[in-house]
Design a protein that fits this description.
single chain, 14% strand, 8 strands, alpha/beta, 36% helix, 10 helices
């Protein structure tokens, strides 16, 4: 039987304290990281005021933004998204970019990026941005999770594919007979949401492969309702990571306890595994990878790994010289890339419509 600590020899007490205190602190840090991991992953409260306050105006950026409030639907909370254009929206655009943000702030913080994107659109093409308001972000209700964010993206995607439904949410928007070309665009965490959305949609269209979820441990997509609409003809990933575990190991020093907590992660975002499980043939999705060469948060090699998981004929790689993680959009190469993305999306939409008429 071990004697009480007070009866130990002073040297033994000192040695126990030298060992025990660091171990206790380390264990405490591990426990706090596990308990509050979603506050570290989904930084929706930063910068201060990002959560719960009304969105800032789009007018200083030369934009018009209409609120898109999706009501509570079953277990899904009410969501606050934005429909953004350069001028007052009067008709459904040729191209609708469904935007999935990174892990910090809210969608209104991205107005400068939206302006740059819309400025890059060719003059003969009309375009708009439908910014997804994740649960727990901005004024959307609920709390974020991997499964929840994927479901939120699905709700906005279904809206994007239904011009009449979209017109009910956006004032002064006239319904159109021809749906817009939908481009799914995810930055950082948003890219992981985009990949998961495509993966989920494809496997629900392939009932002959009911065991696909076994490939990804504890996949939160298992049991998630299928999308009623096509996902998107084009998907754009910008400075996206291969997995949450991979980017955490890159950002934190090797002695950090977070390196050993992977089994306890509730959000995993296994983007590389999901891309590798997509079909090599028969899937028409066009992928564009926008990679900032000086990304200080997600190493560009991760984007290269994601690119390698997609068949070469369906992938476009764009390296943006000097692009940082959150400022790649400020560079001319990024705007030039978007001009081509929009043009190709319209051409694909028109070709598809002609094929349906023939």
């Amino acid at each position: 039987m071990i004697a009480p600590f007070k009866q130990w020899h002073p040297a033994a007490q000192a040695a126990a304290a030298l060992v025990g205190v660091p171990v206790a602190v380390y264990a405490y840090k591990c426990a706090m990281m596990v308990a509050f991991q979603h506050e570290l992953i989904y930084m929706r409260r930063m910068p201060p005021g990002a959560r719960g306050r009304p969105f800032e105006s789009a007018k200083p950026h030369g934009l018009v933004a209409a609120d898109v409030i999706l009501p509570r639907l079953g277990k899904d909370p009410s969501l606050h998204g934005l429909y953004v254009k350069r001028n007052t929206p009067t008709k459904v655009p040729d191209v609708l970019v469904v935007y999935l943000q990174g892990n910090g702030g809210n969608i209104a913080h991205r107005f400068p990026k939206f302006r740059s994107l819309l400025d890059a659109v060719p003059r003969d093409v009309s375009a708009a941005v439908l910014a997804v308001g994740y649960r727990g972000y901005g004024t959307s209700r609920g709390a974020p999770s991997e499964r929840g964010l994927i479901r939120d993206a699905a709700r906005f995607l279904e809206l994007a594919h239904d011009p009449r439904a979209l017109a009910e949410y956006v004032p002064q928007l006239e319904p159109a007979a021809v749906p817009p070309a939908v481009v799914l665009y995810g930055h950082s965490l948003g890219g992981a949401v985009a990949v998961a959305s495509v993966y989920h949609h494809y496997h629900h269209r392939q009932p002959a492969s009911p065991n696909h979820h076994r490939h990804i441990p504890r996949d939160p997509l298992a049991g998630l309702p299928a999308l009623a609409s096509p996902i998107a003809g084009a998907v754009v990933l910008e400075n996206t990571f291969t997995s949450l575990r991979g980017v955490v190991q890159h950002l934190y020093p090797s002695h950090s306890p977070i390196h050993h907590l992977h089994p306890f992660l509730r959000s995993r975002w296994e983007s590389l595994l999901r891309l590798q499980r997509l079909p090599r043939d028969g899937d028409p999705t066009r992928w564009t990878f926008l990679s900032g060469t000086q990304d200080e948060m997600v190493p560009p090699r991760m984007m290269e790994e994601l690119r390698a998981a997609v068949p070469e004929e369906r992938a476009t790689w764009v390296a943006v010289p000097g692009g940082l993680h959150n400022s790649t959009w400020e560079h001319a190469a990024w705007r030039l890339a978007w001009s081509g993305i929009v043009r190709r999306a319209v051409e694909a939409r028109d070709a598809r419509c002609r094929g349906e008429l023939e």
